[in-house]
Write a structure and sequence with these properties.
The protein is mostly beta strands. The chain has 2 domains: 33 residues, no CATH class; 66 residues, Alpha-Beta Plaits. The protein contains 2 helices and 4 strands.
């Protein structure tokens, strides 16, 4: 059980979650950094990207954000590496690569 209130997603990891990942407070998803258990990460090739937003539309975790230049990039604090973005990209501008520990 989480004993103290965490200020941001950067302080919250899978170790802080309730057993069984039960959500005890509605609306707290933004405080949960869930990308640290990903095994693959999406890499965007901006030269191939047409800014169609398919990746943003289909991302089940709302882990894709639009940058000021119009490109859609993954927020790796929330991306779980499912690969849906790479599969729906009509230009094949997103490649999934294996996550490596540093």
């Amino acid at each position: 059980m989480v004993e103290k209130k965490l200020k941001s997603a950067y302080e919250f990891t899978w170790k802080n979650m309730e057993v069984g990942n039960i959500i005890t407070e509605p609306g707290n998803a933004s405080a949960r950094k869930t990308g640290d258990w990903r095994s693959n990460r999406p890499i965007l090739d901006k030269e191939q990207c047409s800014k169609c937003a398919f990746c943003w539309i289909y991302c089940p975790d709302a882990a894709i954000k639009q940058e000021e230049d119009g490109y859609f990039v993954s927020d790796l604090y929330y991306c779980k590496g499912c690969g849906i973005c790479a599969n729906v990209c009509p230009k094949k501008a997103i490649t999934m690569i294996e996550e490596v520990e540093e």
